[in-house]
User: Fold this.
Amino acid sequence: MAFEDVFPKAMKEAIESIIKIPTYGERGASRFIYNLLKLPQEERTIIVNTLQNLAQSIKKCAECGLLTDREVCSICSDEKRSKKFICIVEESQDAYAIERLERYTGVYHVLGGRIAPLEGISPQDLSIDSLIQRIERYKPKEVIVATNPNVEGEATANYLIKLLKRRFPNLKITRMSYGLQFGTLIEFADELSLEKSIENRK
Assistant:
C-alpha cells in the first residue's frame, strides 16, 4: 500500500498550506499539525476559529504598513504620536518589539522585508516609494533606520541611508546603535538591549 493511501488527505493539505508560510518547512509544519491534533477537539476548534478571524480581520495600515485590525493603525491615528520622527523597520513584529518599551513616541514605517538578492528581493519589492512620500508630506526632524543587525539588514540600511541623503540632504538620519549582537533579530532582543539601541542611535 502506498504512503499516499495511508496518510490522511486533510493532514497532507494542511501541511502543504503551512509550508507556504516563510520559515516553515515540512518538518516544522508536520510538528505543528501533530501537536494541534493532540489537543481536545474543543481546543482545536478554538485555535482554528482564532486563525480564521486573524486571516479575515488583520490588514496592513494604509499609512505605515503595520499589521492592524483598522484601516489606519492606532499609532498613526493617535494625535499624540509625533510624525516628526519616523522609525523604519523591516516587519511589523519589529515595530511591536519597540512599542513594548513604551518609550518611543514617533511613528513607524514598515518596509515589508529587507533587500536580499539571493532570495530575489530587491528595493522595488519594499515600500520605499511610500516612505519617500511620507517624508515629503511630514517633513520629519529625524528618520531612524532600525533594520536588523545582520547582512541583509545592514545592506538595506546602507541602501536607504544613501537614497534618503540624496533625496533629502538636510534630513537627520540615524541608525539604531547595536548593543545587539550581530545576527540578532529585533523581535527577539531583550528589552534592555533594545532600549539602549534606540537611545544611543547614531
In short: The radius of gyration is 20 Å. DSSP finds eight helices and six strands in the chain. Strands lie at 59-60, 67-68, 82-89, 106-110, 142-145, 172-175. The mean pLDDT is 88.
